[in-house]
Specification:
InterPro entries: Cobalamin_biosynth_CobD/CbiB (IPR004485). It is found in: Cell membrane. GO terms for molecular function: ABC-type vitamin B12 transporter activity; threonine-phosphate decarboxylase activity. This is Cobalamin biosynthesis protein CobD. Its main location: membrane. The protein is mainly alpha-helical. It has one domain. The chain contains eleven helices and two strands; from the N terminus they run ααααααααααββα. A hairpin with a 2-residue loop joins β1 and β2. α6 crosses α7 and α6 runs antiparallel to α8. It is globular, with a radius of gyration of 19 Å.
Amino acid sequence: MEARTYADDRRAGVVHEVIAVGSVVGIGALATRRRGAWGAVLLTALATWTALGGRSLVRAGHAMADRLDADDLVGARELLPSLCGRDPSVLDTEGLARAALESVAENTSDAAVAPLLWGAVAGVPGVLGYRAVNTLDAMIGYRNERYERFGWAAARTDDVANVVPARVTGMLTAVLAPLVGGTAGASLRAWRRDAGSHPSPNAGVVEASMAGALGVRLGGRTQYRHGIELRPGLGDGPAPTSVDLRRAVRMSEGVQVGAVVVAGVIAWVRGGR
């Protein structure tokens, strides 16, 4: 579709976003029409399973920690693209650990909390529509020569879709900080102090709250294939290690369970649908 809609223009990007996301939402809405109770349950379960990525995130986090513990830099660099879009060829052990940990923090919100919340609020169209928004942002929401304008709509839509999920993730991270030896106070302090300086209004929240809970410092020079970004520091403490990455994965698992509870409460309040 991009070959048909692409132009170095924001309006073309809006058209691309509307067609791509709108078609998925429409399919979800059509699929849920005139379904019996059990059909609705099955369809909701299938849509949610399709949209969730928390289990894959946990597996990738543990695999990265295993390779770093074994000093397998080649293997760790090969694995990193499954977690984030940074250039692994320029990263050492410390850089790989930080990149993986920041990705675990951000994707706990994007791949688990947000789909659950959108599903609880808007059912099958909501969960599938959110996954379309988030995936399209990962495809074209970049500030490089090709996508600076065309990908603007995808990036901004994703920002809006994740405003509430990111903050729910931050609150759950703070509440569950004792799971990884941290405190809610430290997590909330890092959130309040550092999140606003991050270029993303949502990634800053989840990364800062995670850094505070773990007692590590995230941010700094971040190299993508399209260029280098100098990220602000998040949290206080040393640079993260593979041990901290495993703690972040454990936190991610706890936050995912917490998100299931929150989504269930929302669905119950809305009438048990």
